[in-house]
């Protein structure tokens, strides 16, 4: 017999336990280096088969391109491999816990992707005759209904393209309402703990931002707020408040705050980034909110896509409803009617303008409605409860080792720690976060909100199982103990095991290289032999 | 509920571990009078099959572009997108990742953003491009705000060839920010006198080419006049495929180029999500809105990419930021980049020539119909025809015959008698000889 009588080893045996080979390619098995398309593509290659058109006389006038384009092409298998390899360098919610506070990285059901790709939604043009897109308009109307019922409001501006765009929309409605009433207040109140988009939005509209303070318990100092309102009486356009706030706490005085704002002829803008904590548990309209954007890509799980696209519809109170921008839906005899231009506006409708071309993020609307229909009112309430329960479970699992800036009180959907537990360890919040990467976790939100030192904001979401949370808590405890034992090397150089180690952001900003340029050709001048 | 992993046993155990008797104790900070004790009056949970049935019924009430002869453009275009694109953008690692705040584990996103920026800079012949805006219209609004920051002036002059809804976005934003706007009347033929509108007060001139009406515009003289008055030229496009064939705005003196990138990689989606392209000159980079991805090295000296120049942005600069933009169009950028990587110069050039050829052929067929005039002298894949009667009714009549013929200008500019009869018609690589014949034949019948 010439068969292999040695057999193949089925165990790893003692094969090279500590040896770290330096590979020729720079690859490490599944972890592969991938050049830029400009380094591998060719100008005469294309991955799309098209025929050269014939039999026509160009009518470009004098506008034809003078220079050849310099965009390298890839054949289809090359493109496939390039982008698959790139994808493998990304962390994703589908791969593991992604506890980015305030960002709501929850499961993205694939049913929603499938629905958004139905040709009846994905392959219709925003300006084809309305008689041919009745289902599209109905879908927007149905989603608007869900949003209004969930928030207890009477109108919704659907078109804003993301959360910050929704903030802009809400604040423009507020400005329009003041103008219509003959007022021109100059100030918008924003707590220190706010997302950066809030003051940026107010400033974009020419408002002066006046900061309001938090109490020691992490919520708005209502007495201080009243004093600020009195100080600027008659000159306040509104307040921009996140609730639940960015410390993961529900503002207990919310109704009194709204009343005080309203008494000052001002409006209450609520940043709805954290609405996912209270869906089905409380309605912002009942809390006195005049305008609130809803991040469909957070609360209603349309995927984040590596930074968008998002969608930020804005619900509006009765007082602001008339100012909703174009386009909007009006109830008609034969179903919802889409109002696109000022010429179609009727009495009582005072749209302040238009946020964007067309009708908004239809692709995201389909996904969000699919999510809502799947959960139902009961499932969404359960999702909020589970999100809050999971965050509190993490809190109690870690509060003896990490530090809660506002004491051991329940949190909402996210739990905020500060860095006092790292005092004298030589480990910073950033180091700690980078060490989480080596453990296979995406770090939590760091250094935000700004009101606590070295903030770590953890939002596990309702998508995590108990086992997943247990492992996360155990990992975090191990890291904390390690830091406290002085094992600084585990942190200071972390991450060690990711596709890239810590990146030099200072270098990137000092000498910005924002696009690829071909390297200077090497000097090939022959050197004379001596 | 299929998306929620906790069992009732888990919930009970976890509540005990947290130290509360009921879940409602965790919501006790909500004022009592605002607490909802019942579930909301909305449908209850539903299985996949039920949801799919409900949404499919809604989708079935719409007429998809690919099922009819389709000539609708005016800011969004029906193109063929290779199957590879949609497959790749649905990879979990791209689809379900967040904005790349942790570069060590998001090099995939960062590298494609760097590729995207490079592609957009090359296409437009500009120095730098950002990592996208929401879409072309909002990008145009941001471009005007940026020009005001650069020039420290606040008057924008808008060409009458600018998409009416882009114009509305700029006008709304400017009114709210107390900036000045001069909007020229609708200009279907590209013959307006915009040069005389530019003076020392002017911060920027906004010109679209190909225009909303399809007319190609010579940007050079406008750039020259703008620069004489220390104003910027903002060049806008809604059909990015045109750049495969026509002179890029960067070669004509544009200071900011902003456009809609939907045509490459992205479907019609009833108007969104799309992807705004935004490029400028190196000297203005620190006044740019939006995210920027830059090259750097890691601790081992390997090349890597990070979000950079974030001191322009809201999360650092708050009320001093250049824009409030946060989430942009990440996944749409990826679709754009993959499609353009497949095309390359060669494929994009061919695609652009097919688009142009189809438009030229369509123009010939429509111009041969009695009473129909084509208004444009030079165009890419879109042009405006003047009909012998109101265009809106004609489009509706053609829709009943199963042909989506274009956009009546009156849909966007109602109540303007001089625009009542105008129809904007687009033709791309998806149109066949049969499509064109169907449109021409049906139009003849409707006009007879």
UniProtKB/TrEMBL annotation, chain A:
Domain Aminotransferase class V: from-to ranges: 179-305
Highest rank taxon of the organism: Bacteria
Signal peptide range in chain numbering: none
Pfam families (alphabetical): Aminotran_5 (PF00266), GcvP2_C (PF21478)
Alphabetical list of Gene3D superfamilies matching this protein: 6.20.440.10, Aspartate Aminotransferase, domain 1 (3.90.1150.10), Type I PLP-dependent aspartate aminotransferase-like (Major domain) (3.40.640.10)
Catalyzed reactions per annotation: N(6)-[(R)-lipoyl]-L-lysyl-[glycine-cleavage complex H protein] + glycine + H(+) = N(6)-[(R)-S(8)-aminomethyldihydrolipoyl]-L-lysyl-[glycine-cleavage complex H protein] + CO2
Keyword Oxidoreductase in annotation: yes
Entries under NCBIfam families matching the protein: PRK04366.1 (NF003346)
Protein name: glycine dehydrogenase (aminomethyl-transferring)
Gene: gcvPB
From TrEMBL, chain B:
Glycine cleavage system P-protein N-terminal domain segment(s): 1-401
GO molecular-function terms, A-Z: glycine dehydrogenase (decarboxylating) activity
InterPro entries listed in its UniProt record: GcvPA, GDC-P_N, GDC_P, PyrdxlP-dep_Trfase, PyrdxlP-dep_Trfase_major, PyrdxlP-dep_Trfase_small
Top-level enzyme category: oxidoreductase
Keyword Oxidoreductase: yes
EC number: 1.4.4.2
Recorded catalytic activity of this chain's protein: N(6)-[(R)-lipoyl]-L-lysyl-[glycine-cleavage complex H protein] + glycine + H(+) = N(6)-[(R)-S(8)-aminomethyldihydrolipoyl]-L-lysyl-[glycine-cleavage complex H protein] + CO2
UniProt KW keywords: Oxidoreductase
CDD domains, sorted: GDC-P
Binding partners and assembly: The glycine cleavage system is composed of four proteins: P, T, L and H. In this organism, the P 'protein' is a heterodimer of two subunits.
Described function: The glycine cleavage system catalyzes the degradation of glycine. The P protein binds the alpha-amino group of glycine through its pyridoxal phosphate cofactor; CO(2) is released and the remaining methylamine moiety is then transferred to the lipoamide cofactor of the H protein.
Family named by the database record: Belongs to the GcvP family. N-terminal subunit subfamily.
PANTHER family according to UniProt: GLYCINE CLEAVAGE SYSTEM P-PROTEIN, GLYCINE DEHYDROGENASE (DECARBOXYLATING)
Protein's name in the database: Probable glycine dehydrogenase (decarboxylating) subunit 1
Gene name as annotated: gcvPA
């Amino acid at each position: 017999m010439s068969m292999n009588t040695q057999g193949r080893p089925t165990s790893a045996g003692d094969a090279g336990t500590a040896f770290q080979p330096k590979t020729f390619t720079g690859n490490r098995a599944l972890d592969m280096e991938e050049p830029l398309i400009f380094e591998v593509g060719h100008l005469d290659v294309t991955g799309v088969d098209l025929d050269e058109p014939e039999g026509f006389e160009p009518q470009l006038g004098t506008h034809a391109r003078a220079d050849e384009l310099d965009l390298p092409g890839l054949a289809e298998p090359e493109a496939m491999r390039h982008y698959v390899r790139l994808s493998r360098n990304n962390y994703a919610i589908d791969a593991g816990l992604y506890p980015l506070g305030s960002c709501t990285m929850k499961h993205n059901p694939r049913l929603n992707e499938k629905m958004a790709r139905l040709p009846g939604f994905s392959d219709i043009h925003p300006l084809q005759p309305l008689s041919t897109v009745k289902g599209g308009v109905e879908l927007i109307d149905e989603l608007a209904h869900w949003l209004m019922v969930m928030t207890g409001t009477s109108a919704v501006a659907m078109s804003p393209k993301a959360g910050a765009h929704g903030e802009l929309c809400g604040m423009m409605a507020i400005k329009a309402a003041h103008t219509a009433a003959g007022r021109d207040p100059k100030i918008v109140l924003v707590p220190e703990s706010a997302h950066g988009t809030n003051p940026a939005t107010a400033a974009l509209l020419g408002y002066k931002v006046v900061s309001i303070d938090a109490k020691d318990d992490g919520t708005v100092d209502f007495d201080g707020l009243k004093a600020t309102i009195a100080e600027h009486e008659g000159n306040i356009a509104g307040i921009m408040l996140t609730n639940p706030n960015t410390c993961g706490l529900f503002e207990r005085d919310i109704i009194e705050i709204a009343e005080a704002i309203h008494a000052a002829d001002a409006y209450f803008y609520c940043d709805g980034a954290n609405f996912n904590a209270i869906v089905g548990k409380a309605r912002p309209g009942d809390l006195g909110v005049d305008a609130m954007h809803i991040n469909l890509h957070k609360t209603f799980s349309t995927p984040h896509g590596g930074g968008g696209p998002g969608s930020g519809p804005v619900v509006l109170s009765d007082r602001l409803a008339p100012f909703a921008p174009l386009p909007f839906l009006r109830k008609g005899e034969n179903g919802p009617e889409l109002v696109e231009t000022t010429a179609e506006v009727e009495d009582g409708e005072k749209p302040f303008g238009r946020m964007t071309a067309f009708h908004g993020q239809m692709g995201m609307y389909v996904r969000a409605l699919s999510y809502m229909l799947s959960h139902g009112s009961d499932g969404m309430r359960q999702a909020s409860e589970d999100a809050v329960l999971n965050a509190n479970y993490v809190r109690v699992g870690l509060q003896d080792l990490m530090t809660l800036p506002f004491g051991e009180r329940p949190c909402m959907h996210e739990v905020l720690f500060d860095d006092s537990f790292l005092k004298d360890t030589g480990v910073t919040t950033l180091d700690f976060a980078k060490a989480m990467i080596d453990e296979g976790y995406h770090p939590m939100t760091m250094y935000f909100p700004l009101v606590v030192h070295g903030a770590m904001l953890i939002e596990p979401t309702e998508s995590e199982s108990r086992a997943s949370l247990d492992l996360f808590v155990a990992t975090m405890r191990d890291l904390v103990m390690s830091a406290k034992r002085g094992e600084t090397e585990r942190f200071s150089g972390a991450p060690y095991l990711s596709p890239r180690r810590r990146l030099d952001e200072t270098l990137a900003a000092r000498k910005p290289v924002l696009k690829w340029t071909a390297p200077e050709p090497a000097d090939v001048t022959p050197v004379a032999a001596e | 509920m299929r998306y929620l992993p906790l069992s009732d046993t888990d919930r009970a155990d976890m509540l005990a571990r947290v130290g509360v008797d009921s879940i409602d104790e965790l919501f006790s900070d909500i004022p009592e009078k605002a607490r909802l004790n019942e579930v909301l009056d909305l449908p209850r949970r539903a299985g996949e099959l039920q949801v799919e049935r409900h949404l499919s019924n809604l989708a079935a009430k719409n007429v998809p572009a690919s099922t009819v002869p389709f000539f609708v453009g005016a800011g969004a275009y029906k193109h063929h997108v290779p199957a590879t694109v949609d497959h790749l953008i649905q990879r979990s690692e791209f689809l379900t990742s967040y904005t790349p705040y942790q570069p060590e584990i998001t090099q995939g996103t960062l590298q494609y953003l760097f590729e995207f920026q490079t592609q957009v800079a090359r296409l437009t012949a500009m120095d730098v491009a950002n990592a996208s805006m929401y879409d072309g219209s909002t990008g145009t609004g941001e471009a005007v705000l940026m020009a005001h920051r650069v020039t420290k002036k606040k008057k924008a002059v808008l060409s009458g060839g600018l998409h009416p809804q882009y114009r509305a976005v700029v006008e709304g934003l400017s009114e709210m920010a107390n900036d000045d706007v001069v909007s020229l009347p609708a200009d279907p033929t590209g013959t307006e006198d915009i040069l005389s509108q530019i003076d020392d007060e002017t911060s920027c001139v906004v010109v679209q080419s190909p225009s909303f009406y399809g007319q190609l515009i010579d940007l050079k003289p406008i750039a020259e006049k703008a620069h004489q008055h220390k104003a910027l030229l903002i060049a806008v496009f809604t059909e990015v495929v045109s750049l495969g064939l026509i002179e890029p705005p960067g070669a004509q003196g544009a200071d900011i180029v902003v456009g809609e990138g939907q045509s490459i990689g992205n479907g019609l989606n009833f108007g969104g999500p799309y992807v705004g392209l935004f490029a400028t000159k190196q000297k203005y980079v620190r006044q740019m809105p939006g995210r920027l991805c830059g090259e750097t090295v890691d601790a081992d000296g390997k090349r890597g990419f990070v979000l950079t120049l974030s001191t322009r942005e809201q999360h650092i600069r708050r009320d001093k930021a250049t824009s409030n933009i946060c989430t942009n169009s990440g996944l749409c950028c990826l679709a754009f980049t993959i499609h353009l990587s497949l095309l390359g110069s060669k494929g994009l050039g061919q695609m652009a020539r097919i688009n142009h050829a189809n438009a030229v052929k369509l123009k010939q067929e429509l111009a041969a119909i009695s009473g129909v005039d084509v208004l444009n002298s030079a165009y890419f894949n879109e042009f405006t025809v003047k009909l012998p009667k109101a265009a809106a009714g004609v489009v509706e009549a053609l829709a009943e015959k199963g042909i989506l013929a274009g956009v009546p200008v009156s849909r966007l500019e109602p109540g303007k008698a001089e625009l009542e009869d105008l129809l904007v018609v687009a033709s791309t690589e998806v149109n066949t000889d049969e499509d064109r014949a169907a449109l021409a034949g049906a139009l003849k019948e409707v006009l007879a």
